[in-house]
Structure formats: structure tokens, C-alpha cells
Amino acid sequence: MSNPGRTWWGNRFLAALEGFTDSGRLQRGRAYSSDNRILEFAIVDGIVTATVRGNVNPYYGVYKEPKYKTRIQMTPLAKADWARAIARIGSRADLVARLLMSEMPDNIESAFAGTGQGQSHSLLPRNRQDFKLTDCSCPDYANPCKHIAGVYYRLANQLDQDPFLLFELRGLGREQLRAALSKTPLGHALHGLTDTTKPEPVATESYFTRPEPASASPDYHAFWHGTKRLPRELPALRPAEVPAILIRKGGDYPPFWDKDASFVGLMEELYLRVREKNKTAL
């Protein structure tokens, strides 16, 4: 598994945990975030559940390798607070555009500032009160134990790949988010760009393109020599409104990318090198 906390929101999640827990204990639990330790991991209705393989420890009377049940739940936001936050997000094109490309806007918290009655809410955790539930079936009295800490790191890794998971952890599922945003001024654009409905297959007589007879004999001389010379200078191209939108839509760390470096940044460097190398080819 790749290192968690590669995105700013994943790193912010881990930094918040270190702020109100024993950072040393949290780091010791990092080894428990691997697939070899976490046997089962799921997020259902905002509740994280995991089965973590423990160690044999005769000192505590543990003579058989145990499997501990761990649960983590962030404090969900009230419906009224979500309504105010969604209204702010849906009225700002910068927030909606970044979310559509599976990126967490660095100013996302501005949509949650002052949403509570007399208190300030946030999407990312800030203190212990942002976690409603953290428990483990192991005999360790400390919280977090190394099993909970391992699940924290696994959760941070999941957040790196899917920033929308933060909304689910706060009580608003992905489909609920889309349905709520569809009622805002920018909702139609959101629905059009995130529609994952697959078109119905169309029947065809052949899987291959059938040849079509030529209407006239080809002019081989014109084909090989051309009717006119190619221009020595190409006209300046207008840059795209959103460059490399297909690559950016997957985010800096798409699911298939397990490197620490940003996938978007690497592709930007690659395209720049190709463009500079072939600038004088024609």
C-alpha cells in the first residue's frame, strides 16, 4: 500500500489526529495499516469497520492469534448545517469544478465556516469532538490503540484516492451530495459531467469496418508529393480552457497510481518535454 497522506486533505487528516492523540502511539500503529494486518475494511453509512490481525502475547493471556474488531465514526453534521454548506458550494464554480475532477478544493472549508448555530463546523477533523466513535475489541485501554491507529492510516490512504469520502464520513453520501447539488444554480452542469449511466449496446452485423469501393482512381502522384507545400510556421493555437481535463479529472492520485509523486504533475512534465522536443520537427 502506498504512503497515506499524499494529498493535502489526507495529510491534514493525519495532522489532526496527531494534534489530539499520542503521536508516538499513532506512528507505531502505522505497521497495522497493511493488507497483511487489516483483513477486512469497509465504510457503510459513514461508519468505518475493520478486522485487524493482532499478535500472540502470553503476558496478557493471548495464546492464539487474535482478530480484533475496530470501529471509527466521525461526528456527522446536522441536516441544517449541510443545507447551508451545499448552498454555498453549489453557488461557487471554483468549488464545483474541483470536486468534479476528484480534487478537494483547498478552500473547501470556507463553505462550512459559520454553518453551525453559534459554532463553526468543518469538513476535515480539528479535534477529538470531530470523532463520535473510536473503539477496538483489543484489551489495550489506550485510545487510539495500535489497531485503531492502523485503521486511521488506511482511512487516510482511502481519502487520498477519493476526497468525496470526507462528505460520507460527515454524514452525506456521494449520491446525496449529487442530488443536493443538482438543485443549486450549477446543478445541471454537475449532473451532466458526473453522469455515469452507460448507454445501451447497439446491435451490429459485423465487428469490423467493411471496405467501401473508391469513387475514382486515386491520384498517387498527389498523394506522395502533395498539391502544396506544408507551411513553414504553424499558427498559434489557442490553449484549452481547462488543459488536460481528462487527466485532471482523475485527480493527483487516481486509484491505479501508487507512486508518491502527483500523476497530474508527472503528465504535465511529460507533455511539456514532448512539446519542446518536437517544436521544430515540421
Automatic annotation (TrEMBL):
Keywords (A to Z) from UniProt: Metal-binding, Zinc, Zinc-finger
UniProt domain SWIM-type: residue ranges: 121-156
Q: Which InterPro entries does the entry link to?
A: Znf_SWIM (IPR007527)
Please list the GO terms describing molecular function: zinc ion binding
* Keyword Cytoplasm in annotation: no
Is this entry keyworded Hydrolase? no
Q: State the name under which the record lists this protein.
A: SWIM-type domain-containing protein
Taxonomic source organism: Thiocapsa marina 5811
